[in-house]
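FAQ: What does the model actually see?

It sees only this:
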Amino acid sequence: MAARKATLYRMVLPDHICPFGVRALQMLQHAGYQIDDRILSTRLEVEDYKAKHGVVTTPQIFIDDELIGGRDDLERYLANEAATV
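And it is asked to produce this:
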């Protein structure tokens, strides 16, 4: 069985690394996902991403090209996934 793919958009600024993005990355790694880690490295990139996708926070996680949402949404998604195995 091939590893499922996740795309993670998270904020990593020179003076701040979003702890929710770090936690989402760790959760995906622990769950065995192949991760495309997309770093938003400036405030402008973060704000442009949020405006383009109509979201108010980062990180944002996609699994198999489906929007899961933020870190809390990912936690619920992974818990439901584990419950159905």
